[in-house]
Write a structure and sequence with these properties.
- The protein is mainly beta and 78 residues long.
- It has a single domain, classed as Immunoglobulin-like (Sandwich), CATH 2.60.40.
- The protein contains no helices and 5 strands.
- Strands 1, 2, 3, 4 and 5 form a 5-stranded antiparallel sheet that branches.
- It is globular.
- The chain starts with a strand and ends in a 14-residue tail after the last strand.
């Protein structure tokens, strides 16, 4: 399973989290984070997890939301 994480700025405080939608039949997985503030910069990472615990965070990307707190980006996490 994968989990999207986002936080304001560069320090991971007050992390927003959401389990990514997972479909084993699809090569590209999608996820949506809600509750983001408009016109705000966030750092976003992906964490895999299972019964043994969480993986280290993926490389991060920086995104900035638009009006209404929406941000549309596509990234490939390997």
């Amino acid at each position: 399973m994968e989990q999207l994480q986002a936080w304001k700025g560069s320090t991971p405080n007050n992390i927003l989290q959401r389990v990514a939608d997972h479909d084993d039949t699809e090569q590209i997985q999608r996820g949506t984070l809600g509750g983001l503030e408009k016109f705000t910069q966030y750092t976003v990472a992906l964490v895999a997890y299972n019964g043994a615990g969480d993986s280290p965070k993926s490389d991060t990307i920086i995104v900035k939301t638009e009006e209404g707190g929406m941000c549309y980006t596509q990234c490939v996490m390997i």
